[in-house]
Design goal:
The protein is an alpha/beta fold and about 250 residues long. The chain is globular, with a radius of gyration of 17 Å. The model has no long low-confidence stretch (mean pLDDT about 95). It binds NADP nicotinamide-adenine-dinucleotide phosphate. NADP nicotinamide-adenine-dinucleotide phosphate binds next to helix 1. NADP nicotinamide-adenine-dinucleotide phosphate (NAP) binds next to helix 1.
């Protein structure tokens, strides 16, 4: 895999208004990106950051129209961070589970798929560039505290593997990111030590520059990645134990 310099590059981030997406924007600017497209469902929610290299675009990743418009506007993009995501709840037996799971699939899997479909020709035209999918450790081994979210991230992981092969010939590098708990709105109910989005964002950029295609950007993820690599079954048991503790805690 070829490495990807951040300095001087043109980047696009989805879900850039808060959490890890927002931290990625700040990290990209700090590391000398030439231009950064910060995209959000509602651009008015992207607050408090001014920089002449920043271009704010409206983009709901579930809207084909939004994707087409954003791709047209960002015709010079070289590195794409598919970061937008939702985690909509726990359990698999409540009456809303199928609707919830569909929505998670729409945002976490079909969104990145559609974005990739439309952006791949742009990346090819601009020399290949890179795609970075923000998956989850829960996409490698289901965390049954959020089972349907984990399943959507497993789909994204699978797509990431496919994209690596299918976009390789056009010179596009594909990086998969598998964070553990990060201190954002999404992980509000996760009672575990969490890494700051700032630290995660810089770790992601470091790993991209080092050419690491599977990125475990925080201490929990790094340990988990090692365990998953040596024994997927042991990793499954570890995630099951973590989920059991979380379920017991939420019931107490
Ligand atoms: N936090 C963690 O512990 C953790 C761990 C592993 C992986 N991740 C992944 O990291 C990514 C970022 O999550 P986060 O922790 O930063 O969560 P977050 O603070 O809840 O932020 C989620 C972001 O996704 C955006 N988004 C949701 N639906 C969207 C849509 N249809 N179109 C465009 N943007 C949409 C949100 O925008 P709005 O403000 O408009 O809702 C928001 O900017 C996600 O893919 C998540 O699955 C997070």
């Amino acid at each position: 895999m070829k490495t990807q310099n951040i300095e001087g590059t043109v980047a696009l981030v989805t879900g850039a208004n808060r959490g890890i997406g927002r931290a990625l924007i700040e990290a990209l600017l700090t590391r000398g990106a030439k231009k950064v497209y910060a995209t959000a469902r509602d651009p008015k929610t992207f607050l408090g950051l001014r920089d002449e290299r920043l271009v704010i675009l409206q983009l709901d990743v579930t809207s084909a129209d939004d994707i087409r418009t954003a791709v047209d506007a960002a015709s010079d993009v070289e590195i794409v961070f598919s970061n937008a995501g939702v985690q909509l709840g726990t359990g698999i037996m409540d009456s809303s589970v199928v609707d919830r799971a569909r929505r998670e699939m729409e945002v976490n899997y079909f969104g990145p798929l559609q974005l990739l479909q439309h952006l791949a020709p742009t990346l090819a035209k601009n020399g290949g560039g890179a795609v970075v999918t923000i998956g989850s450790a829960a996409g490698l081994t289901n965390v049954p505290f959020f089972p349907t979210y984990s399943a959507s991230k497993a789909a994204l992981h699978s797509l990431t593997q496919a994209a690596r092969v299918l976009l390789g010939p056009q010179g596009t590098s594909v990086f998969g990111v598998y964070p553990g708990p990060v201190d954002t709105d999404m992980a509000r109910d996760v009672a575990m030590p969490k890494t700051s989005p700032h630290d995660v964002a810089f770790a992601i950029l470091d790993a991209i520059e080092a050419g690491q295609e599977d990125i475990f950007p925080d201490p929990f993820a790094a340990d988990f990645g090692q365990q998953f690599g040596s024994s997927p079954k042991a990793a499954e048991r570890q995630m099951a134990a973590i989920a059991a503790a979380m379920l017991a805690g939420s019931a107490a």
